[in-house]
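Help! Submission page says 'invalid entity' but I think these are all valid:
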Amino acid sequence: MIFPTVQFAAFFAVVLPVSWLLMPRPALWKPFVLAASYVFYGAADWRFCLLLGASTVGNQLAAVRAEAARTRGDEAARRRWVTAAVALDLGLLGVFKYLGFFVDSVDSLLRGIGLAAPLPLLHIALPVGISFFTFQAMSYVIDVGRGRADVASIVDFAIYQAFFPHLVAGPIVRAREFLPQLRAPRNPRDVPATAALFLILGGLVKKVVFADLLATRLVDPVFEAPGAHSAPEVLLAIYGYAGQIYCDFSAYTDIAIGVALLLGFRFPQNFDRPYAALSLQDFWRRWHMTLSRWLRDYLYISLGGNRRGRARTYVNLALTMVLGGLWHGASWTFVIWGALHGGGLAVERWISERRRPSAPPSSATPSGLEPSGLEPSGLMPSSAEPSGAEASGAEASGTGRPTLGAAGTLLRSVRIPRQRPHADAMAPAPATDSGVRAPGVALRWALTFHVVCLAWVFFRAPDLGSALQLLGRLAHPGPAPLVSVGIVLTVAAALGSQFVPARVWEVPQQWFARLPLVWQGVALAGVVLVVNAVVGEQGVAPFIYFRF
Amino acid sequence: MTAPPPLPPPLPNPLPAPLQAPLQETRRVRVAERDFDDDAHPATASSVGRMPAGRAIAVVLVALVAAAFLDSHAFVRAGEAMPEGAVRTVTLAVAHPVDAVAGALGLRLPSEALDAAFGNERKTGDGATSRLDELADGPNADGSAAPAASAPVSAGATTGGDAAPNGAAAPVSTAPGATASAGSSAPAASAVPASGLPASGLPATVLPGVVVGPAGTGPWRHPTPGHPLKVLVTGDSLSDFVGFQMAAMTSAAGLVQIENVPRNGTGLTNPDFFDWSVNAQQEIAARKPDVVVVVMGGNDGWNLTVGGHAYAAGSPQWQSAYARRIAAVATILSGGGARPVYWSTPPFPESSKWARIFASQARAAVAAVRSVPGARYVDLFQRTQVAGKYSDELPFHGQLVDARQPDGIHFSRIGAKIPAEVILQAMAADVGRVR
């Protein structure tokens, strides 16, 4: 079941009131919401529910055993059970997501060295959302094993893993964020419904008006047959894909977060105007934030983070991002996408450290964010805790805002506080507070944006050859029938929305909040009407991240 | 760290008393929620428009009901697009009365005005009988008779009936020595043997057959780099990758411009949802193509109702009615033979049920193109069998490729090179070099 459909509307019209009615009685509410989530998931293929259930049972068993071992001080057993759960989860991903890729690669290798030993092609249906619910299960077992979360009841864990708003395409919610919400009833007197409804409608608009239009009118034709298009079309399609994937993916998570809020649950933020980033490190604090912190907490730190010296830190950064690329799919194009980001992050860090050689990596940020004492800022620091250098820069400037100039670095990332709805700062603004001139900021923004766009070419292209052919077409001028005023404006709007101050979006919400109940409903229906008119007869395309 | 917003003053609570119980949180819960607040979405803390759950539920329900009435046409279309089953039945049982009430009360006016403003064209007829039904039951545009329901619909030596045991269609008839040629000289109702096509190196099991309809009004123009042919590739989702591969294969020569317009989820058996006769007229008027390629049938597993009688998908009567619908749409697309139309039905599927239906479609298409000037049937059904069976792997230029998607119907991205190539070969036989 997908969000912008009649089926989901009918499903939600039942689940929303029943959920609030049953919530005071957890013995009824929990089975209900669990069943509803399985109905939501099984609507595509009921057999996938068996896989989800098996994942839940296996991970819960490991979590219970790991906690028991930790309680009695049996470190070896604790490690054994956590490892078993991780192996189970990676095994599921391996079979359903990567086995075909592995077989194809081995087959190609054998052919390449002249051994005609073709392996049988494998067609294994990819269960929707497997990457998301598997990562959540891993976070649960690892956190329990680390003592950072209590083991939950099987029902609570099953709800955490299957909760329908985040089941299919995230955001990736930590167990220690979600499970406590199951233990306390939600407050029925205080639902941020206006913000939730605007998230849902905003998501619909982003998906239908921007993402689908860009895909059908520009991106798909160019990326599928790059040889048939000239440089202006190719360049606009690359920018267009940057806008499309942001509007598509952030739309899904906006709708998911809005739906969860209406049900009384809080989800983490997943996007924060990523194309306003001034460095790749900054970009990864703003793009798919829940994946970033997952990679940081459970991969980068597990690899040693920045604790094992500079060279190893660079390797860990690159390796983390390459594996993050592979998480998206079994393809060399995703590997290259991850490698570009990983390499870029390593280069940024190298430049930063060369300019302040006296600051060893491990002392650049406060420790203690992780139980192990590892600091995660080398990849994507906690948004709540500015790095030491950044914090001191902010203090030096006397503005209380993070700065760039204190350390005199060119590419060191700026820690920009995430904007709350009442904040009005545009993202790049802090960089100008400390003496870094606007041209420098613009240059850093442009460099970051274009590196991200270059990586997107490999992310979107159907294969490596097509990606290289597409980049090669940038040197081929010619007629550009796909470049129309309307498409250019759509690309500009999709990307330019990143720079709209958050306060602007509050104005229609305040207006909406003053309407009588019935007119609120009619106003929402009016937006749906307009969205449907934009869609026309073509319908809504599937969300991009469904296949991840 | 952002402090959580203070609770608003108590409001009348529409929900049962147990919900009003004070929150009991353990220390761990408080710690965890405090940690969570660091990363929580800003909307969580929004102070604008917070309201009790009861009111939020009411707003959502009013919005859904209002949307159903104000956009009742989309509601009906959504139901029509669903696969057969209880959900579709229930949805349409609700949507049709809602649509009727909305029409009577004038509630559809806003959506109709918006459609006009956005230039949306309706893809269905206005009357009780679909436009496609009317055309399929009437004479062709050129005055020739459409394949009649009572007439035997044949492909080669086989007439209607069930498919071969493995679901395969009967062999496409071939006329020895006949070749595809430019429109004006194309032999009427003849067929092109596989040997008449350019050598591709493909094994015989995947070599195509192309059935050629009556001569068009040609001669059709041969493309040049300065004056390329405009090729419209359309159909259902099966046509999507085919169109992209055709564009990729022809891009270097610059002799054709591919316009890929898939109409996902559509077919010929449900004109109440999407009427291809209406769409065909709109596409020709708007895009003015020189050549049309259609790959369609993946959604046509529905029963067909003709003259008040419902015929099961794949039955002889269904096949005859389906042939008339193909002929009606192909006639519009070809403009009475002014441009060639290459029509393909789906490839051989993994499911035996679909194999029977697709075999019937293939026979219907063979019969249909024989009555439509300028129409050609390009076989994908037989050429995607390996030893008479379904296979994910198909040979292409001497190498096995993973040609099918996991659904056992669609071509994979690389597998779509196979239909793209054979369609381009058929096209080249009519208009000269295209790549």
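Support: the input was valid. A stray whitespace character was the problem, and the output above is from the cleaned input. Chain A touches chain B through 99 residues (CB under 8 Å).
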